[in-house]
Amino acid sequence: MKIPVEWLKEYIDLDKTPAEIAKSFTTIGLMLDKPIIKYSKGNFSTEVLDLEHRMDRADWLSILGCSRDLAAFEKTTFKMPEIYSGDIKKPSKEQIVDIKVECPDLVNRFNTRTFKKIKVGRSPDWLKNRLESYGISSINNIVDITNYVMVETGQPMHAQDLSKFQKREILIRKAIKGEKITTLLGETIELTEEYFVLTQNGMPIVLGGIVGGKDTAVDEHTAEIVLDAGNYNQVNIRKSSRRAKIQNETVLRYDKFLHPKLTEIAIERATKLILELAGGEVYENVDWYPKETPERIMNLRFARIKTLSGMDIPLKEVESILSALGYVTAGSSKESMSVTVPYFRTDVEVEDDIVADVLRIHDYNNIPTVHLDIAPPKDITPEIYLVEEQLRDICKNLGFHEHITDPLVEPDPKNDKQIKLENAISQEKSALRTEMYTSLAKVAESYTKNKIKTSYLFELGKTYEKQGSGNDFADYNESRVLQVLIGGDELTAKEKAKTTKRVLASIMRDFGITPYAIDVTGDMNIVMHENVVLGEIKYDSFFLYTEALKNAKGIPNRIQSEYKQTKTEDISVVMPKTTPVGPVFWKIKEIDEKIGSITCIPEELDTIIGEKNKNVLFKINYSGDNFAETREKIIVLINSLGMSVRELSSIANDL
Amino acid sequence: MQDDINNIRKMFEKDLETYSKSGDFDELYLKYFSKTHGLVTNLLKKIPSLSAEEKRTFGTSINTIQNELKQAITEAKAAFKTATINDPAIDLSIPEVPLNSGELHPITKTIIEMNKFFRYHGYSIAEGPEIETVEYNFRKLNLPEGHPATDLQDTLFVKEPDILLRTHTSSIESRILSEYEPPLRVIVPGKVYRNETANASNLGFFHQYQGFVVDKGVTIQHLKGILEEFHKFLFGENVVLRFRYKYYPEVSPGMGVDIRCQFCEGAGCTVCRQRGWVEVLGSGMIHYNTLKMCGIDPEEYTGFAFGMGLDRLAMSKFGISDIRKLYSGEMIYV
Ligand SMILES: [Zn+2]
């Protein structure tokens, strides 16, 4: 909300600089959002405060509303502007502009008045200056007055030239699909039945609560007008204006919660200004208001102020704050008071909101600062959080850098499981990622560009997938994933594969997950543990589902406090070239507890074993002395797998 | 036998010279003392088959040579080591590159630091879904359909109108409040999404850090208390705070917290966009209706909540000018 200080001072007696005023506004909820603007034109000059508006307070979209709160905070007087108090002429029957409403769910009130013999012309300087310092250009005295009263009171208003009416009637109805309206700015909008319109003789003349049409606009020849102040369904205007992509001062106010009573104040104020600046005569007309909005009376318990603030604010102060804000005491007891909520405070919802009013005018900076001395409750941190912290530490310690990449990606039309967003602003960020390899690989490219030959990278994040129709919340899955990647061209694929496998092995070791296995299906290498998929490995990367990792987590123990005698033996196995070695490795490992570590070295093919076979050397480390039986079991196992043991060499552990 | 001993001794002297050059003393040891084929071991093995007199004559000699040779190896080993340590090629004054170690992301580092503070103060950490229902993201946080305040957070929809990407970490607050019984003391770090065009300060997603406490007797004074300590922890003891009323739908009373600009000390500069103050955090007493909708009696329990964006903080801490760099390869670790 922009506040020209010169205008503000019309309603409040305050001897403070614009900077000091801005400071007070900031404290009570209207933060100065931008530097103070200096506006000047001719002899006129004023500072303009651009205050942040937080959507709840419809009355803070009016200079009056802001002034009232400032006056309460500054403990100074607030005066309402003068309104018309003279006679209003009774119209003849033919003179009445009839108001018909066919969509009472969208219209709460439609308050009108007519004026005759007015003279449309340019506005006086004071009016033009104020409007222009606020940011609205001057058009003519009538349009300027409706705008001025809107900024002053917060109620949008509208004046139309009655000579341009075919029939003295305004009918408000839902728009018909395909119907068109040309706005004051000359833009033509095609309507649907979701909009509502003010019509004249069947033709739309105003897009309800959003923008006026060209056809009945006031111009320099206008002598008779109908002035209206309406109150409409806020949700409809909100949706309609967004659909039509129209944002203006009217919409800004109408999509908040305005009170129907505000139309009365606005009409009286506008009447005074029209008669003063355009002359003419004022006539009563229809005030369509079938269901009056009742006053709200709420109870404020003094104990509640204490419950929320921990303070005892003297009753007198509470009363004076509330009264300055427009609350009226309807009764009180020792424990509580009942107050009538001011009609313009449509934001007040619960008792605590009244407490908030008291505390904010009392000034938050006057609330003491106290440290919580209640014992902390029990820890509910989920284990997965700690698991991921540990994973992050492991990766970091192994020399991998953490990156966070954008989960929003370009959609892949071929991927049914990918979740597409319905209203993303940009196409290239309108879907959720299903994997993290691609984005991390892109990061790796920048390392290469920066002449870092090999990059070791990881990301802990989520991937997202849709199952089924996507109509149910349960159709959407998020998986927590650790993605590890080695980038750059310096290392060969074989070298990368070795490091990738070692990183995976380190994680498994530190998580106490043994055995784990790599299941080879087609060109996929799935990391498994006890029939559960933990992730997938490629030559340069792997990912793990951290939730699965958490479930598979064992108790690693790398501490050896007693001397253990060990012996190493090489067993060379001949097996088909295409057989993956991993499963054989894990089967040997599981034979019995005498088998310690195993190192596995695939050897070069040689002519003796032929084209179809390969030779793999298992360096087996036994604990203890007597391992003949274990060795026998290994040989039986290997033979049972249809493979053969090529040679056996035992090296006695001499040292 | 004596010849054998003498030969071994001669051979050893030669070997010692050779091996002292290569430093491979283990091999030397094995040549003479291996349990299976060591030259001295073989001599020792012969002792039992000697006559009593021979035993007397050679037993001592064999033992002596065993001790002498072993000692010679030990001494040669030590000498070799001393020689390598004093190698003039070792120049400790030439700096070397550090060993490899990984770096954590600035956002992670910021979260870890904050977690440390709040863990110490008895807060648990919570996490939850990023794809969220309207129920937890808005309704339970006191935001009915069509409420003007929904504008404060432009929503990205997965399936309109009910399924969306969470716009704030408060969605986890409403989940925790609905699932657990108070007392509760929780922080929630996480990603949130807004429908914004990407530029230097927006990206469509960013990180928030949320905290909330629900207990008996909690007041806005306690909220001010923890926030004051937290800001001192983040920005140092000399930080100057400003508390002001600020509306957030899920709290009432709501409170905004600013720190005095550390560049201009309040005078106004480009960093604080001439405000003199920098907004850090939004907070307030958890809304009466939010507690009620989450199944907590607001007459028995009160609570406070606070939330802040992490990206700007991390960027200023690590000197990153553009939010897009935080999440792309434009920021690398060297
Ligand atoms: Zn500054």
From TrEMBL, chain A:
Residues 293-369 form the B5 domain. Its EC number is 6.1.1.20. It comes from the Bacteria. One of its GO terms (biological process) is phenylalanyl-tRNA aminoacylation. One of its GO terms (molecular function) is ATP binding. Its cofactor is Mg(2+). Keywords: Aminoacyl-tRNA synthetase, ATP-binding, Ligase, Magnesium, Metal-binding, Nucleotide-binding, Protein biosynthesis. One of its GO terms (cellular component) is phenylalanine-tRNA ligase complex. SUPFAM superfamilies: Class II aaRS and biotin synthetases, PheT/TilS domain, Putative DNA-binding domain. InterPro entries: aa-tRNA-synth_II/BPL/LPL (IPR045864), B3/B4_tRNA-bd (IPR005146), DNA-bd_dom_put_sf (IPR009061), Phe-tRNA-ligase_IIc_bsu (IPR045060), Phe-tRNA_synthase-like_B3/B4 (IPR020825), PheRS_beta_core (IPR041616), tRNA_synthase_B5-dom (IPR005147). PANTHER family: PHENYLALANINE--TRNA LIGASE BETA SUBUNIT, PHENYLALANYL-TRNA SYNTHETASE BETA CHAIN AND LEUCINE-RICH REPEAT-CONTAINING PROTEIN 47. This is phenylalanine--tRNA ligase. It comes from candidate division WWE3 bacterium RIFOXYC1_FULL_39_7. The lineage of its organism: Bacteria, Katanobacteria.
From TrEMBL, chain B:
The lineage of its organism: Bacteria, Katanobacteria. One of its GO terms (molecular function) is ATP binding. CDD domains: PheRS_alpha_core. It comes from candidate division WWE3 bacterium RIFOXYC1_FULL_39_7. The keyword Transmembrane helix does not apply. Pfam families: Phe_tRNA-synt_N, tRNA-synt_2d. One of its GO terms (biological process) is phenylalanyl-tRNA aminoacylation. Its EC number is 6.1.1.20. This is phenylalanine--tRNA ligase. One of its GO terms (cellular component) is cytoplasm. It is found in: Cytoplasm.
